[in-house]
Amino acid sequence: MIEAPALSLAALAPLLCVFGAACVGVLVEAFAPRDVRHPVQVAIALVGTLGGLVTSLLLVGERQVTAGGALAVDGAAVFLQATIAGLGALSLLLFAERSLDPARSAFVAAAAVPAGSPRDRELMTAPRVQTEVYPLATFAIGGMMLFVAANDLLVMFVALEVLSLPLYLISGMARRRRLLSQEAAVKYFLLGAFASAFFLYGLALVYGATGSIRLSAIREASAGEAGGGVLLVLGLALLVVGLMFKASVAPFHAWTPDVYQGAPTPVTAFMAACTKVAAFGAILRLLYVAFGTSEWTWRPLVYGIAIVSMVVGAVLGLTQTDLKRMLAYSSIAHAGFLLTGVLGYGGGADGTGSGLGATMFYLLAYGLTTIGAFAVLTLVRDGDGEATHLSTWAGLGRRSPLTAAVMALFLLALAGIPLTSGFTGKFAVFRAAIDDGAWPLVLVALLASAVAAFFYLRVIVLMYFSEPAADGPTVGVPGLPTTLVLAVTVTATVVLGVVPGAVLDLAEQAAIFVG
Amino acid sequence: MTTFPWLLTMIAVPAVGAAAVAALPRGRESLARQLALGVSLLVLLLAVLATIAFDAGGERFQLTTSVSWIPDFGVDFALGVDGIALVMLLLIGVLVPVVVVASWREEATGRRSMRAFWAWLLLLESMMVGVFAATDVFLFYVFFEAMLVPMYFLIGSFGGPRRQYAAVKFFLYSLVGGLVMLAAVIGLYVVSANELGEGTFAFDALRQIEIDPGVQKLLFLGFFVAFAIKAPLVPFHTWLPDSGAEAPIGGAVLLVGVLDKVGTFGFIRYCLPLFPDASRDLAPYVLVLAVAGVLYAALLAMGQSDMKRLVSYTSIAHFGFIALGIFAFTTEATTGAVLYMVNHGIATGLLFLVVGMLIARGGSRLVGDYGGVAAQAPLLAGVFLIAGLASLALPGTNSFVSEFLVLIGSFPTRPVATVLATVGIVLAALYVLLVYQRTMHGPARGVLLEPAPETTAPATGGGGATAATATLEAPAAAPARLRVRDLSRRELAVAAPMVALIIALGVYPQPLIALIEPAVAATMSDVGADPAGVSPEAPVEGTD
Amino acid sequence: METVPADGLIAASWLLIALPLAGAAVLLLGGRRTDRWGHLLGTGTVVAAFVLGLLCTLQLGGRRVDVDLFTFVSTGSLDVQAGLLFDPLSAVFVLLITGVGALIHVYSIGYMAHDPRRRRFFAYLNLFVAAMLLLVLGDNFVALYVGWEGVGLASYLLIAFWHERPSAATAAKKAFIMNRVGDVGLALAIFLMFAQLGTVSYDGVFGAVGTLAGGTVTAIGLLLLLGACGKSGQFPLQAWLPDAMEGPTPVSALIHAATMVTAGVYLIARCAPIYDETPTARAVVLAVGAITLMIGAIAGCAQDDIKKVLAYSTVSQIGYMFLAVGLGPVGYVAGLAHLLTHGFFKAGLFLGAGSVMHAMGDSVDMRRFGGLASRMKVTFVTFGLGYLALIGFPFLSGFYTKDAIIEAAFDRGDGWGYLLGGVAILAAGLTAFYMTRLMLMTFFGRPRWEPGVHPHESPTVMTAPMVLLAVGSVLAGFLLVVAFPLESWLTPVFGEPEEAEHVVAPLVVSVLVTVVMALGVLTAWLFVGRREVPVTAPVRVSPVTRAARRALYADAVNESLFMRPGQWLTRALVFVDNRGVDGAVNGLAATLGGSSSRLGRTQTGFVRSYALSMLGGAVVVAGALLAVTAG
Amino acid sequence: MSLTHYLVLAAILFTIGAVGVLVRRNAIVVFMCVELMLNSVNLTLVTFARANGTVDGQVMAFFVMVVAAAEVVVGLAIIMSIYRTRRSASVDDANLLKY
């Protein structure tokens, strides 16, 4: 009789909630009539993610390894799961927006219909929507939540695929500019699969080196002289590649601008916020838990990659003319900033650095801001849908002061201006890094922030200081979902900038890995 | 000591005012400006009351308020002022209402609403108060950076033709400086954590820490670069002429009058006390920049054809004097430097305002587009002259006292730098009088000329003693006349208080000095200089 | 000598400054409302100040009274009290300033009667008087400096009074700037005193100056001299003074002849305790005085502008005074006496010139004058008396005071003494020449008037001051040297006069000077009086004349040495700032932008190249990790 | 043959797959190359399982297969949809998004 592995259902509740909702969504897709599917799907997805959020909040303080050692439900996992669930719910709200586009949704009516075909044109303005996006997104959210709690590499790999595969699909489901959307999907898919292969090979090598894929076992094995041997180090390298890809860290960032630009904007928001959180959650867990004892092996690497990422993101962002692409480069630069936080692993007064808490706070702050920024992008439209070309935003401040003000706030937050969440986050990660002696890196980071600030400013300049074009875009009146998203993100951006104490505290207290 | 939170109120009042102005419905422009004026006058009143509540001989920091803000970072929302900060608050209190009145009829560029202008202005005031009142380094940094935003919008939305370029340049320069400072701020925190066991940003606690000299130098540089960009020292200065030229007049006044003073204020408040060894070691290099600024910027000012750029360059020269005074490490010079900060705000503020009045009449910023204005607008010319004379530090004007103190205080410790800087006073006379002569003196010419020559004989004459003279001197054709009106009542209301302050502080500066000196003396003892001031080299016998 | 606290009227001596200052303030702030009576108020304040000054002087006796007013600046060890020092020296100056000032104010009522800006003229004049009084009454160097620059401002405002004329505006600016150059010296001297002695009050500095090293004292003395040169139009800063004649003539009389330009002499006399310690600085003062008196005299010989002649004459006469005070204790009183008499006759001469200009339609070109003696009798007589006083006609005032200076120079006894004395005598001859030339060209000969000019005598309000000044010109020398010796009045300041050992007998000097003077007059008559004066200046003249016309190329030197290089430097620096400093920043931005678009090209859109970059990245990552672990 | 040979073979397969991704244009072929990489990993896992004497590696291989199958489904769907629009499965044709 084989004993069932120890399984704490309570600790798994957030995951169960989200995956359950996803499964129900699939069933709904199969059985519910087409007319009611949309509201039902939205409701189920929201209930699932919000359930995930609530249950994970209830788990605060939980520290255990469960599911036969496959999952670690610890402070960091819970914090990140809650973050992902919350950001996921916000993204889903963006998915659900139906009043902005005359075509009624950002998502295609029938993905199977070839783009540009007569049938496609016919369906262009149909109220029908490919409602599978909701269960798909819910699955992705579930995968992400699993990703950050994975305590062995296999679970991590499975979670990686669970979060990725739905993303590949929904990236290709834009209603307008379908060619771009599909291209984004193909690129994302091929490169994603390529990266997973690296991750997987890394897994295999680690397994070969240590005989186990349990993080704690790897930790013991890597504590040795040479970091556990060539195989283990190679394995680490390949694992890092796979994860950095997801986190869109340069030089594994190439897909990011293309996919961010091509995917439907709500999906881009979802990817920018949630995927980033999940990927960094996994990076932190892998580096801190599995390779924490051999920090010296990966520290120079992360140092270098952080610099490359910040510089590439900041410099390439300078000349972008498409807002979504620009935000993609911004996301690459932010990945670099996050890595400076990752470097704050140790070196604090009591031997443990403040890097984990700082990075988690940064993820939350950045996720909220970036979702908000993409949400604003969905509002500004012209005849072809969203007007994402920079030039079309000229004079928006005069045309629609509120929209421009909200966007300006998000941009200032991304630039890291004090009294916004972006500043608090930057301050936290930089402090962690300097604490650990990485002040040259921080200097580079600060200079990169200055360069990056230029392109954020450029948007503000356009919005406020330029004359509006005669045939400029219109600003749609957002429906309830988008309004809600904007309200939440604006509030969060300001609150986390002005009175971040409570959340910082939370992140600090959650900065615990078990396993 | 009072329990009323003066400083918090001074931050909150304009912030709330800004929100109220911004919330006004479209079309209530005049209500907006009335509100702005009311709020700014209220702040002035608060500043005056706070000064009364302040005890010059008492504790270093007074009127303190402290609330824990971000405990994880050891950050407190701690406010408090010493004499130095207090006089800056007074300066803010005076300048903002003046700027409001000066901008009363400012036309928004394009179709932008002026409500935004008033709102940004008040928000800027709030931030400026905060930056001077903060006694927590983190809080200071927050205000330091946040202050950029309203000024950025003031320049970018309401500025001249190249406002976009200027606004972005302003923001990026300041941001780069600010970010370098951020690194130093964090570094300071880390150092404090290592020294005290628990990180802190409280100024008073940080002052006590002995920092390793090497680290001190790095941290000093971090702060210094930010401040040297803000109070532009050569070669970090090129943003100021652009910003000063493109900003709306009100914005320019506050920019050079107050905002840039944060840099020099930062030297005194942060660089010197926190990093005394580094300050002493690096002072010679700073002095080179300071003196270079005095001379270089003065020469450049002469070469400018744009009046607003010219005034900006004069400011750079003045900042050189201030930096000289600060890094001479004598009580006299540093007191002079602080006084200079106030006086420069008033003098250059008035210069900007009056240049703005001229530009408002002619629509051109170029010196060469004006000429002979004094003949028909004597009040305008007079105010221009007074502002100019204050700028060249003529005795009897406020700037003289400060410039004199800076130089006389610097001479004993830094004779060479002082001698070079003193040459700057000749250059100052040159740039002021050159522009004054070109615009105000000489025959009427330029953009203000009446379009069609009129045949009516000029009664004013060209300067003769008799009527016969006048006819003799008058050229055959009717001389050109300008179509220019003299200062309006509103403009007089702008200029009068400034002129009054220029004269009053020029004749009787001692009350301000008494307010400033204790804080300066404290700073001097922080940096290891004798707070009692210069001691003469030769023995003094038989003096009173 | 001991300083005593103020009592009686002297305690109110701050009113001396306050009265004209208040007058200026009322006139400037009052605007057009004060147009009708502004000139009366302006004159009234100065007259009142004169009366007050006279009463104070009578009360003074030989004392040295300090009037403490308020703390001006006190920080660290620097303590500057706003206070007045009323002693015989300042009393003399107070009387000169307010006395001559009052007369010139009265004169200006008539002279400026038709000028629409007369009110402002009086305001500026009042401002000047106030600043000048502060200059001579201050009891410390800072107060002196404040007054020093204050008179500079008044001078600027008054030279540029007719600012529509570009030449006037330029002259005013030039005056201010060159004064500022001198002011730098004065300022540095004050800094040096503070650094060395820790005080800037007269008492403090003079009391302790003996403790200083010789080099320091010399430095202070030279720096003070620089200041004095700027204000007094002495070499090398003399070029502004002739240009300053662009101002209305009363201004030239008051500021640029009688009072302000003699401030340098006052400064050196006041700082006698310093100069007593430093023979080197005194020698430089001597040299400056000698050079300047020659430059002024030579340049004066070739001018056709009546005011310019007088201006160069002023330059030259102040050179005499510098020469005198440079001689040290023996010369102070002589210099000050000449200063006072010069104040009378030069003011009178300027007022006379103003009267002539008034009559000639503001023309200053002597070549278009001539034969005015009969048309303007009062002017002619008063001017003539001033002329005689200036050239040192026996027993008029210049005779007494100039001779004293020349005697004192000879009394040095060494070769330098003879040289200086010789120069002074030569210059006396030149003075006689150019002044006679002026007289001849203006009042004698055939009229060469511009068409439409009808000379007439000036109104009484103008002639009365001229008469008074003429009386002064005649009597002042006798009064100051013989009747009520200035020497004894100033004894409390400069100490007991020592009985000079005359190297050359005074009588010999007097005779010599008088003979040379007569020669000068004769030469002038030979060159100018006998022939017809051409209405345009001859072009083909000797290089000497050409040089004299251009004031020995002082302006040319200034231009080529300072102005042009300065302009060039300015232009170069503007270029450097725009292209260099700002260009570096903009270049950095452009570089970033350029590398951005170049790097952006790597984002080709091809999946396979992306995959390649990832693979490359993976190799690098793996290589790096292996390198770290292996190394 | 020692286990090392298997590992080397797997590595070679992985490399072939990776190079295939880089050089082939047809999306399907590219995708198959990725599948080849995954299968080389499977081989590695099984080899290591053998070496370690546990079955964990074999179990993992099954996991990988399942995941790969899922990936095929998703991947083919995406490639199909773009093929139907563009009438081309060349990855180089999908080149609208760049710079």
Largest sheet of chain C: 3 strands, mixed
SS content category of chain B: mainly alpha
The succession of helices and strands of chain B, N to C, reads HHEEHHHHHHHHHHHHHHHHHHHH
Strand content of chain B: under 5%
Structural class of chain C: mainly alpha
Helix content of chain B: 55-70%
Strand order within the widest beta sheet of chain C? 1-2-3
Low-confidence stretches of chain B: 454-476, 538-544
Order of helices and strands of chain C: EHHEEHHHHHHHHHHHHHHHHHHHHHHH
- Cα radius of gyration of chain C in angstroms: 30 Å
Strand order of the largest sheet of chain B: 1-2
Largest interface: B-C, 87 and 81 residues
Low-confidence stretches of chain C: none
Q: Counting H and I runs of at least 4 residues, what is the number of helices of chain B?
A: 22
- Separation of termini of chain C? 87 Å
Shape of chain B: globular
- Number of helices, where a helix is a run of at least 4 consecutive DSSP H or I residues of chain C: 25
Describe what this molecule looks like in 3D:
The complex is a heterotetramer of chains A (515), B (544), C (631) and D (99). Chain A is mainly alpha-helical and 515 residues long. Chain A has 20 helices and five strands. Chain A has one domain (9-510). Helix content of chain A is 70%, strand content 3%. Chain D is an all-alpha fold and 99 residues long. Chain D has a single domain, classed as Helix Hairpins, CATH 1.10.287. Chain D is built from three helices and no strands. The chains are: A mainly alpha (515), B mainly alpha (544), C mainly alpha (631), D mainly alpha (99). At the B-C interface, helix 13, helix 15, helix 17, helix 18 and helix 19 of B face strand 2, helix 5, helix 6, helix 7 and helix 24 of C.
